[in-house]
Design brief:
Layout lengths: L1 E3 L7 H6 L10 H11 L2 E2 L1 E6 L2 E6 L2 E5 L3 E6 L9 E2 L5 H15 L3 E6 L11 E9 L4 H7 L2 H12 L3 E5 L2 H17 L7 H12 L4 E8 L2 E11 L2 E9 L8 H15 L4 E7 L4 H8 L4 E11 L4 E2 L9 H7 L3 H15 L1
Parallel strand pairs: 6-8, 13-14
Antiparallel strand pairs: 1-3, 2-5, 3-4, 4-7, 5-6, 8-15, 9-14, 9-15, 10-11, 11-12, 12-13, 15-16
Helix pairs in contact: 2-7, 5-8, 6-7
């Protein structure tokens, strides 16, 4: 296999579109965002055959004084399925990746996928996935939504909520304002503003994503960021102002985003990952009729030469502290820590 940087391959995305099993997260745009925002080094393990990838396993090298030097496939990515055309080659591919990681001095290697090519091993943690089939007509899809989801969409319309589909940097700044409110409510610092600036420059402005914003009496109260590539799309980020929660603007934002992807002939839309114990988010996502699956995160420890059976979680006291942080301090915390958490 070759270990390459996709940003150095001019026709990377075209090759990817010829490759079965591709997703947005395999694209060069996402690689650029991760490199520019956090300085990660790409280590994409690849083999080519007849104008497509017969092997594609994207990995970013994270070099952190807090969390060590490690490989992640991929940081800040819900799931990144390995592409291996000949499944019988999986053991030797895995051995080659481990040998490369050991030579690079990696502390660990994390793989995030639903259909792992790894040997029999326990996941360190797992999440729910949600995949929405967009192959039907709009009215048929609306009919499959849960009754409460349809009612919430109609309620938002009756309340005068209007949704804009945007691709401007001003819209991204408006979404980021809502994101900061939402992260504070959840006891988490927001991602650095330059991360979303890079998303705008490499994805939104390149017509590979969109921003949906909901307005109530000319005030922006909810929003979402979607990415798309080829026939696949993903709902990546959502945010809202809790003061207007009763208007159910999030439901209308999601529905307008789904309708946009339907019109663009996107065949399936991922609703991202959800923690198993996040009942509120599970309730929201289950209302759209998406097929639910499992995303497993596998963590290989090079020192122990084996897989870890559990992953640490930042919950409890740290989350409570961040809910009381002033917004400027919370943003600084995001700038300091996100690079190391990838």
């Amino acid at each position: 296999m070759e270990i390459i940087d996709p940003t150095q391959i001019p026709d990377w995305d075209q090759i990817l579109l010829n490759t079965p099993g591709y997703s947005f997260f395999h694209s060069v745009s996402w690689s650029r965002v991760l490199q520019e925002s956090y300085g990660y080094r790409p280590k994409y393990f690849t083999e080519m055959k007849e104008g497509r990838f017969s092997v594609l396993i994207p990995i970013m090298e994270v070099n952190s004084f807090l969390t060590g030097k490690r490989g992640v496939s991929l940081p800040f990515t819900d799931s990144c399925e390995p592409i291996i055309e000949e499944s019988q080659k999986a053991p030797e591919i895995w051995a080659e990746i481990l040998a490369s990681g050991a030579n690079q001095g990696w502390k660990s290697l994390e793989m995030r996928s639903e259909n792992s090519f790894l040997p029999d091993s326990p996941p360190a943690t797992s999440f729910f996935s949600h995949l929405l089939d967009l192959s039907g007509a709009e009215k048929n899809l609306f009919a499959t939504l849960r009754d409460s989801t349809r009612r919430n969409i109609k309620k938002a319309v009756r309340q005068g909520i209007e949704v804009r589909i945007c691709d401007t940097f001003e819209a991204m700044k408006e979404f980021y304002r809502l994101l900061c409110l939402t992260r504070k409510r959840h006891g988490l610092p927001p991602q650095p503003v330059y991360f979303f600036k890079s998303i705008y420059e490499n994805i939104i402005s390149q017509h590979k994503g969109l921003i949906a914003l909901a307005d109530y009496k000319k005030q922006c109260i909810a929003g979402a960021v979607f990415f798309h590539f080829g026939e696949t799309g993903i709902f990546k980020y959502g945010a809202s102002d809790k003061k207007f929660q009763q208007f159910r603007a999030n439901n209308l934002v999601m529905w307008e985003g789904i309708k946009w992807h339907l019109k663009k002939n996107v065949k399936n839309l991922s609703l991202g990952r959800t923690e198993r114990d996040n009942r509120g988010l599970l309730q929201f996502k289950s209302g759209w009729g998406a097929k639910q699956g499992i995303i497993n995160y596998f963590n290989y420890d090079f020192r122990k030469q084996g897989f870890l059976s559990a992953a640490p979680r930042l919950t409890g006291i740290p989350n409570k502290i961040f809910t009381y942080f002033p917004s400027p301090l919370s943003r600084i915390a995001g700038i300091i820590f996100y690079k190391h958490l990838g």
